[in-house]
Design goal:
- Helix content is 62%, strand content 0%.
- It is an all-alpha fold and 94 residues long.
């Protein structure tokens, strides 16, 4: 599946909601991003911040699996959606 920026942002918002409902992962997300709960609310529509949500999830395969299983998504969808947001582009060094 190819994601547009809008569809990637929608999936990232679902991931953010999933994180926010997870009492174990939300503090880890806040700690790793330096964000506060107020920042999360204020930046929920910021594509760069939403990219950070995917970056965080992709730090651990178990998190990707848990989120994707909860939303009946193939596991590669997180990476595909991340590529559609700022900072997710493939870098080609040659």
């Amino acid at each position: 599946m190819t994601y547009t920026r809008d569809t990637a942002e929608t999936l990232a918002l679902q991931a953010l909601g999933w994180l926010a409902s997870n009492d174990d992962l939300l503090p880890a997300f806040l700690g790793s991003t330096g964000a506060t709960e107020d920042d999360v609310r204020a930046r929920a529509t910021d594509p760069v911040f939403l990219g950070a949500v995917f970056d965080f999830l992709m730090m651990d395969d178990a998190w990707v699996i848990s989120f994707c299983d909860a939303h009946a998504l193939p596991y590669e969808r997180i990476m595909q959606a991340r590529a559609a947001l700022p900072g997710g582009e493939q870098v080609h060094w040659t």
